[in-house]
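Model: Ready when you are.
Researcher: Fold this.
Model:
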Amino acid sequence: VERRPPTVFRYLDLEKAESSAIRARLFVGAVCTDWQLDALRDDAVIVSSELVANAVLHARTECRLTVQLDARGLTIAVHDHRPGWIKRRPSIDATNPRGLGLFVVDRLSRSWGTTPTAEGKKVWALLSNRSIR
């Protein structure tokens, strides 16, 4: 851990399929294990799953999941091919059978947002680096 470069980065390209959220969870869990981020693993897995599920459900495009670790913390981002913005104040819909989505992302991350890209948008979340050495 002490010899880790200042920034490490990995990505996974995902299809427009319900199984992509499962692949995201497995990928991010493995990344956290490789980077010795045991304290962040559960939150990172949940956040990545919610972001990918939203891209598949709402953007209806394939997406790229990126995970980056630097001095600020662990950033999880999903790049899709549909332009637009995400509502900044998510609320809980108790009748929604699909989950809590961005409400969970908002609660588990230090900050999150949407950035437009040439091909669509990137929805990202920064998890705290309190437990990263």
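Researcher: Now this one.
Model:
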Amino acid sequence: MQIKKLVTIASMFVAFAVTPVFAGTGTPENSSVNTEDVIPYILPDEMEHSELEALFNVTGSQIIEKAKDYIGRPYRRGCMGPYAFDCSGFTSFVYQSLNIRLGRSSRDQWREGLAINDRDDVHVGDLVFFGSSARISHVGIVAEVEGNGDFKFIHASCSNGITISDINENYYDNRYQGARRILNN
């Protein structure tokens, strides 16, 4: 997708008005959301009103409800569904099904939305990322928040296909890099 234009009103709204809502405290100073990592949404010329509206009206629960429809589908590198997926193909497919565009790779998606710096602040529908400190290599979607930084996420696993995993599994806990919030809800 070629990005052609920055829509000033939308980016100002996302960068300034929405930041306290994401933070949950009403003030950026008291938040674990890094407001310096706010990347305004860049909207292509062809973005329709419905796409912009989806960013603010789709809920995390709706994302997860849609994602669960694909549990059990196989992992296949480079696939974007609906019969097989790789990790970023799955997350972009699910979000796109609700009219929200994401970048194609996990590294592209790592640069979207708002950075969530504390695992205690993840919400259902947030993207969660895994890899080494030098490279993001996997992405999933928070499916359930259990408190104290614990959560379950749905993703395209190489060995199990579309499945729900727990952040406390050693493999994922040791590779967790952070989360990004795409939705306002």
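Researcher: Key takeaway?
Model: Residues 153 and 165 are 6 Å apart (CA to CA).
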